[in-house]
Amino acid sequence: MDDLFLDLDRKNQTVFTLFFIISIIGAYLLFKSHEKRKVLAKLQYELQLREKIRLESLVYIDELANIANRRFFDVMYKKEFKNSFRDKISLSIIFCDIDFFKDYNDFYGHQAGDEALKTIAQTLKNSLYRPHDLVARYGGEEFIVLLPFTTAKEAEIVALKMKNNVRDLKILHKKSLVSKYITLSYGIASLIPNDEKDFIKLLKNADAALYEAKNSGRDKISIASV
């Protein structure tokens, strides 16, 4: 009888051990399944978030030039103007315009004009020194550069680098009256904002400087007088 009870006890222990092991395995698999669902849910959320960010960013990209567009410039200009106004730090803008671009399009064709515009846009972008500097397509063949914490003299250095880099592209322009290659004219304005009216004033000054650069022969860099 004792042997019988001992045998039953052993069998019960075995069954209990098996049940315990099965329970542990079941709990582990359930945990892993739950963790897997959490990981998949997190991955799906991240993918959706990235897609949302990507789609939102397209709103601020010029489709042709593949750089920031005017809308994004407007957003960043408001931000940097507020920063400069608050900290009393110089803010600079460069307006630049491709010289005789209509004549280029008429002579070489609009497809060639689009390719030239893309190349120039990337060249201007690659000419910037700092990550918070910005170049955007402002419209047509005109670009605008936003340079926070930058004086007029420092902006002139940036414009000169852009001018040299565009010149080094050596894009032929037989209809240009100033060079056998594509050139740009540059208008620079800089100020330390003291009034909200300076928001418009800075843009107007840069535009006036660009007009001066074009009026004085093009392929020039002009700095607005304060």
List the helices and strands and how they pair.
Layout: H1 2-58, H2 70-87, E1 91-98, H3 101-108, H4 110-126, E2 134-139, E3 142-148, H5 152-169, E4 184-191, H6 198-215, E5 221-223
Helix pairs in contact: 3-4
Describe the structure.
The protein is 60% helix and 14% strand. It has 6 helices and 5 strands, in the order ααβααββαβαβ. It has 2 domains: 1-58; 70-223, Reverse transcriptase/Diguanylate cyclase domain (Alpha-Beta Plaits). Strands 2-3-1-4-5 form a 5-stranded mixed beta sheet, with helices on both faces. By secondary structure, it is of the alpha+beta class. The radius of gyration is 32 Å and the shape is elongated.
CATH topology of the largest domain: Alpha-Beta Plaits
User: What's the story with the biggest beta sheet?
Assistant: 5 strands, mixed
* Spatial order of the strands forming the largest sheet: 2-3-1-4-5
User: How many strand elements?
Assistant: 5
Describe the global form. elongated
- In N-to-C order, the SSE pattern is HHEHHEEHEHE
- Beta-strand portion reads 5-15%
Count helical runs. Answer: 6
Helix proportion: 55-70%
Q: Which structural class do you get from the secondary structure elements? A: alpha+beta
Which blocks of ≥5 consecutive residues have pLDDT under 50? Answer: 1-6, 51-55
What integer is the average pLDDT? 86
For the terminal residues, how far apart are their CA atoms?
Answer: 112 Å
Identify the CATH homologous superfamily of the largest domain: Reverse transcriptase/Diguanylate cyclase domain
Oligomer: single chain
CATH architectural designation of the largest domain: 2-Layer Sandwich
Radius of gyration (Å): 32 Å
CATH class of the largest domain: Alpha Beta
**Total individual domains:** 2
